[in-house]
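User: Please fill in residues for this 240-position structure.
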C-alpha cells in the first residue's frame, strides 16, 4: 500500500469514528481530497485508492492537472469530481464554469452571475457554496455573515447554478471548543437559510486538523490535503 493510500485510509477511519461518536451516519460525510500544489501522479495514487473528489485552489494549476490526470490515470467507470475551493477572480470564471463540478468559494454576487452565464448548457448546473468569513478575519475570504442573506437570495435565482450550501475556513485553533464554536455558527447560518428555502443542506467545513469538530457540528464535506499528501510544496501564486 502506498503512503497516500495508507493516509487516505487513516482519514476515512477518522471520518467514520467521528461520525459514529456523534450519532451520525458516516456516509453523510464526503471526503474532498485537496490536491493543490501536488501533481497529477499524486492525484492518480489517490484515485487508485478510491478517491474520486478533488479540491483545487489555483485555476491554471488545476486545468493542467486535470489534463495530465486523464493521460496518467487508468480509465475508471466513475469520473473524477473537481471542486474549486480557492478565491475566484472575475477573469477566471469562464474556465471554472466550463471545467469544474463544484465551486465552494462564492463570496460576491458578480462572480456567481458570471459563473451562471458562462456555464455550458451541455453540463449540469454548477453546484456552489457561499463562503462565509465566520471568524471575522481581515485576511480571510468570505462574505460577512450580516450580508449573507442578500447574497444567498441573489445566487438562488441564477439559472445555471445550484446553491447547495455554505463553506467556511475558520481561524485556526487547537482548541476543540473554539473549533466547534466556529462550525456551529456556520451551521446556524445554514439552518436559517434552509428554513427560508434558499440553500441546500451542504456544509463544507473541516480540514486535516479539525475535521472531528466539523463533523460533530454537521459537516457534509470535509476538505483534507495535508493528512493525505503530507506537507505542501512551496505555495503557488494564486491565478484565480
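Assistant: Residues filled in for all 240 positions:
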Amino acid at each position: 500500500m502506498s503512503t497516500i493510500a495508507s493516509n487516505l485510509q487513516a482519514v476515512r477511519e477518522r471520518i467514520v469514528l467521528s461520525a459514529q461518536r456523534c450519532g451520525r451516519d458516516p456516509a453523510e460525510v464526503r471526503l474532498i481530497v485537496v490536491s493543490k500544489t501536488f501533481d497529477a501522479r499524486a492525484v492518480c495514487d489517490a484515485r487508485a485508492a478510491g478517491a474520486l473528489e478533488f479540491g483545487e485552489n489555483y485555476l491554471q494549476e488545476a486545468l493542467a492537472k486535470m489534463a495530465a490526470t486523464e493521460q496518467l490515470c487508468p480509465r475508471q467507470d466513475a469520473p473524477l469530481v473537481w471542486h474549486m475551493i480557492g478565491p475566484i477572480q472575475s477573469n477566471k470564471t469562464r474556465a471554472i464554469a466550463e471545467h469544474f463540478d463544484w465551486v465552494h468559494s462564492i463570496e460576491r454576487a458578480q462572480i456567481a452571475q458570471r459563473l451562471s452565464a458562462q456555464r455550458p448548457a451541455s453540463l449540469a448546473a454548477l453546484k456552489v457554496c457561499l463562503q462565509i468569513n465566520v471568524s471575522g478575519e481581515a485576511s480571510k475570504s468570505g462574505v460577512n455573515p450580516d450580508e449573507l442573506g442578500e447574497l444567498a437570495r441573489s445566487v438562488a435565482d441564477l439559472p445555471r447554478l445550484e446553491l447547495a450550501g455554505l463553506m467556511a475556513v475558520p481561524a485556526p485553533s487547537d482548541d476543540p471548543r473554539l473549533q466547534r464554536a466556529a462550525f456551529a455558527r456556520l451551521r446556524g447560518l445554514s439552518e436559517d437559510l434552509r428554513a427560508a428555502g434558499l440553500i441546500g443542506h451542504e456544509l463544507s467545513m473541516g480540514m486535516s486538523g479539525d475535521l472531528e469538530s466539523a463533523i460533530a457540528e454537521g459537516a457534509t464535506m470535509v476538505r483534507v490535503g495535508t493528512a493525505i499528501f503530507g506537507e505542501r510544496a512551496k505555495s503557488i501564486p494564486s491565478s484565480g
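For context: The two ends are 35 Å apart (CA to CA).
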